[in-house]
Structures are given as C-alpha cells and as structure tokens.
User: What shape does this take?
Amino acid sequence: MNEPIRTWRDQAQINNPYWHLGACARLYRNVYLHVTDPLHISLPLYSFLQNAGPYVYTTGVSTNAATVNLEVPVENGRSSDEKISVTAQIFDRTGKIVLTLNQNGDVAAGAHAQLNLSARSPAGTWEPDYPYLYHVILSLT
Assistant: This one.
C-alpha cells in the first residue's frame, strides 16, 4: 500500500520528518520555552494539528451591550482527577477590569474538558473608524 505524498502544507515543519536544522544552524532570534503544568489551558495551534485554544466571541451585540462568550479547553495530564476553576478578566482599552467571569468544573485524569463562560456586559461598539478593543486574561486554578 502506497502512502500519499505529503508536502510542507500538510504539516508543521517541526513535525515533518524531512525537515531538520542541519549542522550549520544558529539561533538568531529570541527563543521562548513554554513549560506547562500537566493540568493546563490548551494553547491555540494550527487547525491541521487538531488542537484548540481559548476562543472569545460576542453575540447579541447592540449599541448598549453585548454577550461575551469564552470557550476554554483544559487538558489534564495528571494521574488524578482534578477540580478546576477558570477565571477570565476582561480589560477595556484603558486597562480597567470591566468584567470578571468564573467557572468551576471537573477534569478526569488524562482527559480534556471545555469550560464555557458567558455574561452580558456593557460594551463600546467596534467600528473601523472607532475600534474599541478588549483584552482577556485567563487563569486556571
């Protein structure tokens, strides 16, 4: 049975068996190593790797308010079941906390869970001439 021909578009370069740094490779930019606890929020990665990360979106947008929705995938690589709490702090463009959301849940050992948070909140509307952006910080305990 023949395997299909794979190209660099099919997978990330680091996962490609034909990609390597070679003997003359040098690091010429900052390198960051992300060390995570076995219990952690999944990082957003490429869709073809079939990973997910936190996702924030709004529904029910009007001139006075909007519903803020957050989907937070959590991975438990520990050998025991864990009770978790996810806290989302939403900051306006001046750095002021305008909304704090909290959701509790359970994650079985070696399993994945997704917590969904939502709340109706006052919001500045976004327009191309007047972009009003928010920042979200997630915490897992």
In short: The mean pLDDT is 79.
